[in-house]
Amino acid sequence: MSRAGWRLTSDAEEFRREAGPCLAADPAGHTVPLTVAETVRRHGPRALGTEDARFGLWRRRADGPVEAVFVRTPPRDPLLGPMPEVAARELADALRGAGAEGVKGGEGPARAFAEAWTATGGSWTITRRSRLYRLGELTPPHPAPPGAHRRATAADVPLAAAWMDAFAADIGTGPATDHTAGAERRVGYGGLYLWETGGVPVSMAAHSPVVAGQARVAPVYTPPALRGRGYAGAVTAAVSRAARDAGARQVLLFADVANPTSTALYQRIGYRPVADHVDIAFT
User: Fold this and answer.
1) According to the model, what pLDDT value does residue 205 have?
2) What pLDDT, in 10s, does the model give residues 206-219?
């Protein structure tokens, strides 16, 4: 019999099986746990980190259903799905021995986790606010910028990995890492697209595999010298359509609340706000 509270596992198949109804009830809210679990299932427990991925399942009662989940791909910090604040506080206690430098998730659960984590000392601060968007009616930019989109191939992996490195540096999330494997995975399932002019790539966007009817667009990147020309909007519209064509009923993306340029761009092509998230750092 299952027990009340949190149970941790590194088995992605077990996580999806036990958390299935909870995840299916809110695929948008659980977009990251869903895509992390699918990547780990396909590519192994260390596909997204330097240690085995960890998943968590929370039950209010021993005989009750899973009501909350979290994922962690070390060395990255825990990422919380939608959950009651009592579950977030219990999770902080459950993970204390493993250490963490911060937490990510919806603001209510993330704050509750941070307050419990620092209750015996230390402090915390919100370092980033992001907003989850869902695609409504897709409205590609008109007129479109010069060029056209195309699906990336294996020959594009070195460029895509370099641009993913630059994207991670731009947004300042997570430790430095080699993004070659991530670029190869996206090319492998056909989810990476380039916008190019005159045969030269000028912008990039990708979508995650379709899981539980949802896919998430990330990353979207244009080199600094090429920004402001409409390439990002065009390639985002193209990859959003590709995600729908691949079977996604919901196409999602996260945008930095502090970046009005990108948030306005996404809304122009049809994305609408769903929920706010925060990154919290412990000090």
Assistant:
1) 98
2) 999 999 999 999 99
The pLDDT of residue 174 is above 80: no
Q: Which DSSP string do the residues of the chain spell out, in sequence order?
A: ---SEEEEES-HHHHHHHHHHHHHH-TTTTHHHHHHHHHHHHH-TTTTSSS--EEEEEESSTTS-EEEEEEE-TTSPPEE-S--HHHHHHHHHHHGGG--SEEEEEHHHHHHHHHHHTTTS--EEEEEEEEEEEE-S----SSPPSSEEEE--GGGHHHHHHHHHHHHHHHT-S-----HHHHHHHHHTT-EEEEEETTEEEEEEEEPPPBTTEEEEEEEE--GGGTTSSHHHHHHHHHHHHHHHTT-SEEEEEEETT-HHHHHHHHHTTEEEEEEEEEEEE-
Bridge partners (DSSP) of residue 196 are 148, 201
What residues have CB less than 8 Å from 38, skipping those under 6 apart? 12, 208, 209, 211
Q: What is the pLDDT of residue 176?
A: 61
Rounded to the nearest integer, the mean pLDDT of the chain is 95
CA distance 190 to 105: 28
Q: Do residues 66 and 21 touch, judged by C-beta distance below 8 A?
A: yes
Q: What digits encode the pLDDT tens for the residues 103-151? A: 999 999 999 999 999 998 999 999 999 999 999 999 999 999 999 999 9
